Amino acid sequence: MATRRPLPRRKRKQSSADLTHELMQLINHEHFSDVITRCDQERKRVDLSATCLHLLGIAQSRLGQFDLAIQTLKRAVEQCGTNPGAGPSLAIENELSKAYFSAERFAEAGELLLSLVQRHPEQIEFHRNLVLVLENAGRLNDAIERCVASISLWPNDAGLEFQLGDLYMAVRSYRRAADSFTRCLELDSQNQSARRRLVSAYRALGDQDMVVGTLRQWHDHEPDNAIVAHLLAAHQSQSQPTTAQPTRASDAYVRELFDEFAEKFEDQLTALQYASPRIIAEMLADLGLEKSKDRCILDAGCGTGLMSQHLLPYASRLVGVDLSDGMLQRAAGRGYDKLVCGDLVRYLAEQPESFDLIVSADTLNYFGDLEPVFAAARLCLRDNDSSLIFTLEKHDDDLDPIDTEIGYRLNLSGRYSHDAEYVRRTLQQAGFSDIHVENGLLRREADKEVVGQYWIGKKSLPL
Predict the structure, then answer these.
(1) How much is the pTM?
(2) Which residues contact 341 (CB under 8 A, 6 or more apart)?
């Protein structure tokens, strides 16, 4: 008896809900390129839903494709308008405002957010984001007015108070900024950023008593916080004998400070007109070094790798060392043969006669006593033609002379400045000769030039 053959099962078409679920899973796992690939595949078959377009726009935005994201999200909004059941228009418009912001199209971001605020005044996120857009557009007074109005609606929101404090700092209304940061801390005592900004406001006001008082409260609140411990020591040292000041910033302070600022570090230095890499590059050229690949060079305190482009033409091997893993992650891909996370002095001491040139830009200003680092640097250099190039902050002796026997001073910034004669003497004692120094701009800070010392010394004959 013949048996009936079963009919082949048809493959079930993927529904819009299935695709939405798949895309959300990919986004949750940050597989943004896969989201774009799946959407490209699917829209060859059918039009994407507003929700899928929303998810595609998110993926494009996360990958930095802001103009594409804007086009995608605008299509999603239009689709919601023609089909009220097509998707959550409010969430899509919010994402579109963020894409405008990321693309620095602030006028369009502000226009959309103002519309969202007017239509949905109960949504605090739209108010916050509108303040942020106005601030980044340079409309600081408008941003302050909008932030004050928002606080009247949400008087117990710490985030809005912090935004207002930052805005007052930007327009140099430091007393009002201090009041806002104080209010922020009343609402959120765990807000470490508000404590730091409150210290900055009091420093700008020249109110040393309030600076120290705020730092002490902060230290009592977070006794294990290395940043506040160092800043408190810096401020207390102003009224103590110089012999009582720390001889260097702790590893924990430097690591936490730069890990925290790593993401925005280069943007901040650009705003501060950071000059060290350019001037050190000129020093290298003045040395008459041939741009040949026959030197092993150490970038000591390499940070995000801003010096690498100036050192690579001279190097057969370029090594960077830094305490901050966050900074080193951003230095990867900038031509270093090796990146090391660790203490500078320890690393130098463990690499005898390994380098032909050591360059240290804006790193030794976190050391007061320079003898250990100079001794380790000499040990690390190969021969008598090997050089150490570094920068320090110049101390203003007219304002506050340094004790010449100590030779350095811990400043309110948390960084050290040094007496030139102390530096020269310490270099000579460590075994360096042909010592030369020039004064020059390091960067700008609080609208003032930070003047530095650019030093070079050669390893001399054995001691």
Answers:
(1) 0.71
(2) 321, 322, 323, 324, 325, 328
